[in-house]
Design a protein that fits this description.
The complex is a heterodimer. By secondary structure, chain A is an alpha+beta fold. Helix content of chain A is 56%, strand content 13%. Chain A folds into 2 domains: 67 residues, Orthogonal Bundle (Arc Repressor Mutant, subunit A); 48 residues, no CATH class. Chain A has 5 helices and 4 strands. In chain A, strands 1-3-2 form a 3-stranded antiparallel beta sheet. In chain A, a hairpin with a 2-residue loop joins strand 2 and strand 3. Chain A is elongated and about 70 Å long. About 6% of the residues of chain B have low confidence. The chains are: A alpha+beta, B mainly alpha.
Chain lengths: 125, 302
Amino acid sequence: MVFRPRMGELERAVMEHLWGAAPAWSSVRDVHAALSGEREIAYTTVMTVLDRLAKKSLVRRRKEGRAHVYAAVSSRGAMTADVMREALAEFGEQDRRTALVAFVGEASEEERAALREALAELENR
Amino acid sequence: MGPTSAAAVLAVLALLLAGPVPAFLSRRTAIRRAPRAATVLWQAVALAAVLSATGATLALSTGTGLGEGRGPVELVVAALALAVTVVVVGRLLLSGHLVGTRLRALRREHRRLVDLLGSPEGDHLVLEDETPVAYCLPGVLHGRVVVTRGAVVRLPEEQLAAVLAHERAHLHARHDLVLEAFTVLHSAFPRVVSSDRALAEVRLLVELLADAAARRQHGAVPLARALVTLADGPRVGAAAVPGRGTGAGVPATADAGLRSRVELLADDRSHRLLAAVLYTAAAVLLVVPTVFVAYPWLATLV
């Protein structure tokens, strides 16, 4: 399985910096300085990545003096919670949507009891 | 036999395949014991239904409308039959386009977020969330298996391995394409045909296929335990989802096949005979309408 090409990896590194820096805003220079510790990266690349993230509404941008400064739209935890809510809503829509496939869907109390019973039988064989 | 009687046979077939046959099949829960063959059979039913419906109307329109000395009545019948064919095919194509576009957009968006937020561990992503959940995000080259920290914490190593094997089986076997085809059928003809039964049953069948794959690698017991653990896990945040029932109100869309999944995990007999019967039925279902569609042409050869 191929995991995230370079652009995805950079977006992730940039987001991690912004999450860590919150609530302060970061300039392109700040992000570049933080990222170049671990990798060779051009200043303009950082600018491109921040621009992409802003277009995707994952970071906010505002003008400070002559430069732009950036911040994540919300914390990592809040964004993760949003993603989970979205995923759970998908699993709830079992008859129509197939965008995500859950290991196990929502189960009623009765079904859970039946399930434990079936497991007990399986374990006692 | 003329084209009109071929059209009549095909129309009867189409009606049977649209209603009674799916109803009959979905009650025969024993066929779930051979999930691969049963999935093929369901696909054959769907394909044969579409083939019969379009074949019937096409045969009727060419049979009544073509040739010399046709009166106005024949021409009207031919035009109507042709219009039905166009509507059936058009709805399928449109629904295929809409469903496909929407699914790809949803998955792309979701994948971007899990790639940003999740931590890669082995070949899966872990999301820092307490809700114990495991799922896969299908895609050609871009498939992802996602588990939450809540699931990782609750599942002992061998159970987690079984869950991951289950999800990888979905991705590798492209179960999403089977589901997508039935979703397209269901959204094209939500009421006229029993496409809801077909979709529900096929959903369960692909879970059974993935279960079988996970069981071959890690055994039945770890997988069954993982099912119990994840079905029992508190759905933190689930109540906050708009439109979702809370507390006692279990959504109508609950995972009704859960019991079936664990029962079948305990079943280690082979079902070659059942599978052979189902495959044969699938072949017959596809051959019969094809013969009738081709009949008028075949008749000219004799």
